[in-house]
């Protein structure tokens, strides 16, 4: 089993905070939780060397999330850890200011527990790629453990074949796959069918991706892959 990584969670709404903390702990994380900014600063002082990532609600009492982010970014031990801001949907100004302060990402509330986990896993994967089951490209999140694909906070309902195609694209985003290579990967009866079968699967995958359909690109004369211009 991989060693647990520690998340600093700062959220003043007690019930959602406890739900998220419990969920993360069930998914092999340690969670240090604070419901106000002063408690968060205490946890930083005591556990700085143990914290791998911080999830900060912007509007917490006493010391707000932006000030906590500044403390983290100027901390001798924690300066390079990923920081995620939780923000209300109508707080675009806060989101922009948060990113300017050095936050790596932000999530609009309310957000599903699995979406928050996906953002956390994605950021940690950049530092420790071998420890993560999530792969992110844009607003798409691939769960290689659960075999699911999410667009923002919505699960995309894929067939097993469509998921298999998405997975090889996500795992090798700079590679272009020929139809034959895709057929060999997805296996099953499809490997005995004309390679145009792949075109149908790609078309259906794009339809299900909706607004994110342009992440899958046709490379004329070569095959298919992730749109490298959007990565």
Description:
With 231 residues, the chain is of the alpha/beta class. The protein has two domains: 5-132, Rossmann fold (3-Layer(aba) Sandwich), CATH 3.40.50; 150-230, Arc Repressor Mutant, subunit A (Orthogonal Bundle). 39% of the residues lie in helices and 23% in strands. It has eight helices and eleven strands. The chain has helices at residues 14-26, 37-47, 65-73, 92-101, 113-127, 160-171, 179-186, 197-209, and strands at residues 5-10, 29-34, 51-57, 83-88, 105-109, 134-137, 140-143, 148-151, 154-156, 216-219, 223-226. The strands form three sheets. The protein has a five-stranded parallel β-sheet with strand order 2-1-3-4-5, sandwiched between helices. Strands 6-7-8-9 form a four-stranded antiparallel β-sheet, sandwiched between helices. A two-stranded antiparallel ribbon has the order 10-11. Strand 10 and strand 11 form a beta hairpin. Helix 2 (37-47) runs parallel beside helix 3 (65-73) and helix 6 (160-171) packs across helix 8. The longest helix has 15 residues, at 113-127. The radius of gyration is 20 Å and the shape is elongated. It starts with a strand and ends in a 5-residue tail after the last strand. Residues 132-228 bind DNA. Pfam families: Response_reg, Trans_reg_C. GO terms for molecular function: phosphorelay response regulator activity; transcription cis-regulatory region binding. Residues 6-124 form the Response regulatory domain. InterPro entries: CheY-like_superfamily, OmpR/PhoB-type_DNA-bd, Sig_transdc_resp-reg_receiver, WalR-like, WH-like_DNA-bd_sf.
